[in-house]
Amino acid sequence: MMKWFWYCLKNYATWDCRGHRREYACFNVTLLAIPLLVELFLPLEYAVRLIPVWLILGVLFLVPVVCSHIRRLHDLNWSGWWVILILLLAQVPLGNLLFTLTLSLLPGTSGLNRFGAPPR
Questions:
Q1: What is the CA radius of gyration of the chain?
Q2: Residue 95, class by beta-carbon neighbours within 10 Å (0-12 exposed, 13-18 middle, 19+ buried)?
Q3: Labelling 85: which of 43, 50, 64, 97 has CA 20 to 30 A away?
Q4: How confident is the model over 39-97, as pLDDT tens digits?
Q5: d(CA 76, CA 74)
Q6: DSSP assignment of 57-115, as one string?
């Protein structure tokens, strides 16, 4: 799982290819699990102090997250512009989670599509 997380961070600004659903799911699950585990095991007074840290990390991870969404959309032969819908759904409780889960479960286009060869 961490292999795909580091892969997405290494290729953080690559959006002109296709991304495997395993890459997409592992990256997003890791980004969701780390803050949840930290918040779960810290007392509330310490967790509140971490809010600025989570905001800074959110800004730093914005480009890798958007690029992973775009690569996954390309694997489905969809335009990367659909990422705008994902960002809008992030404002709705559970909206982004449901869309991310859907993208994680849909199989990619088999063979070549307009965005290139299937991911390995």
A1: 15
A2: middle
A3: 50
A4: 888 887 887 888 898 899 889 988 898 888 898 899 999 998 988 888 888 788 777 77
A5: 5
A6: HHHHTHHHHHHHHHHHHHHTT--GGGHHHHHHHTTSTTHHHHHHHHHHHSPPPSS-BTT
- The Cα 96–Cα 85 span in angstroms is 9
In angstroms, the CA 59 to CA 63 distance is 8
State the Cα–Cα distance between residues 116 and 25, nearest whole angstrom.
21
Instruction: Please report where in the chains the tokens 């990256």 appear, as a residue.
Output: 27
Q: Tokens for 51?
A: 């809010």
Q: Which pairs from 52-55 meet CB under 8 Å and 24+ separation?
A: none
- In sequence order, the 6+-apart residues with CB closer than 8 A to the CB of 22 are 4
